[in-house]
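Supplementary notes for students who missed Thursday's class. We covered one full example, reproduced here. Read the sequence, then the structure, then the short commentary at the end.
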Amino acid sequence: MSGVMVTLPGGRMKEVPAGTTLEEISQLDGVMDSPSPVMAAMVNDKITELSVPLMENANVVFLTLGHMDGYRIFQRSLIMLFLRSAMDVLGMETKIYVKHSIGNGLYCEIENSPEYEKNPEESVGKIKERMWELVEHPQPITQMLMDLPDAMEKARQMGLNARLRLFQYRRFSIVHMYQFGKYQDYLYGFMLPNSSRLGHFDLCTYEGGVLLLMPTRRYPHTVKPFQPMPKLFSIFQQSRDWSRILNVADIGGLNEQISAGKLRELIYTSEALHAKHISNIAQEISARPHVKLVLVAGPSSSGKTTFSRKLCIQLRAEGMRPHLISVDNYFKNRDETPLDEEGAPNFELMDALDTEQFQKDLLKLFAGERVQMPYYNFKLGKREYRGQEMQFGPSDVLIVEGIHCLNEKLTASIPKEEKYKIYISALTQLGIDEHNRIPTTDGRLLRRLVRDHQFRGTSASETISMWESVRRGEDQNIFPFQEQADVMFNSALPYEMAILKQFAEPLLFRISHGTAEYAEARRLIKFLDYFQGVSSEEVPQTSILREFIGGSVYEHME
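Structure (token representation):
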């Protein structure tokens, strides 16, 4: 058999017989130098499953669990292991819903199982045992092609109504299914070749459901005990309740509403729910007479700016006088900014802020003194003073937005009873179907892609290349403090993907083959294909979505 040449990172070359699978190549001496398990490979810039044989010369980069795409494959394959094990234990008539991430786990719900309802703890223990059996005695996970009508009939037999709705709007006539023993399912994306690499997980009951716990990318061999997050879990449950009100719990349901001409009603009802929640938050703040400082924090593209301006209006309606500032204006001058590993200014760190001056200004404001407010000139990398002054009266309240606002160190000089903390994020409430979820980070990334192009002249390729660094900053500076918030606000809108599609797709199609961002662009394009694209004309100018697509009434508001 003729040989093929494999070019590895750093220019290393390896000749193997044609037909050698990527999994076999990964196990050859000198190929891998990472202890993290291999999940897939990038073959000529295309993500490829390990079961695929290599038939011609190729550039190959193996993706470990530490790589974002490798982690997605691990997570998806672990879900497959959980689903099959649950069906083995509880029976094929059991309904399982993979809902959302929380901490280092995925929250799932089990229905239509008398055995589980009678004793959840015992049932989850049996499912966990079955998962371990399939890891210790691995079985192949193989891809199979199924005609769309057959796939729809399979969904009907399994009672997966959301999947049936999803397939009704599918553009392609072939569906990529996966077989794991006798269990067949549709899992969106690539999979591991077998269950042998899935030996790091845990399973436990939580809040009426099941948590599928997994390692992090940074610590691929360790599954940390779950730390309860009651406030975050509560906001996810509220989002589920909103989805029921709107009758849009999944992509198929959204496409049905669009096809039925009900998009306008969906948009206005969604916006009304947002407005009602912000109004409730304003009422709660006004009911606390000691509160002088409202702190708004959230990850990138969560809509902090528009939310804060909408909150200002609601506070005025409560008889208060709000003032809005961004903590970004207290960045240190660039020559004082700490550097990241690559020598670039790291604005994600608390040390990048002049916290001493910030707290001095807060104390002066609350003492009734007139304060000169700074403005950070990002072009020059300097903090400037442009004559803007602020002075507080007895009914005034200061709203501060920034990534560190939930960190008590930022406002340590202010008594806790004078502060009210808000955590905002875009927690996507739509699912793809019963077994496939939409990661919250995908929604935020698409928002940022569109916004950065519209307002910052940044290409989609540049935004994607920075996203990993942004995520690291969020993991360090935002997520550890989210449970300290007094209230959480979900800025996601169930209709927004259908709107963002028309803006994001052209930007993603511009990313060229051969670039580091190409695979991620193609993944997002494939994801957006599930949605029917619609015009943005009906989106109100007051919507948080306008912060990203343009046309917001708040763009020039001081």
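Commentary. The two ends are 71 Å apart (CA to CA). The chain has a mean pLDDT of 93. If anything here is unclear, bring it to office hours.
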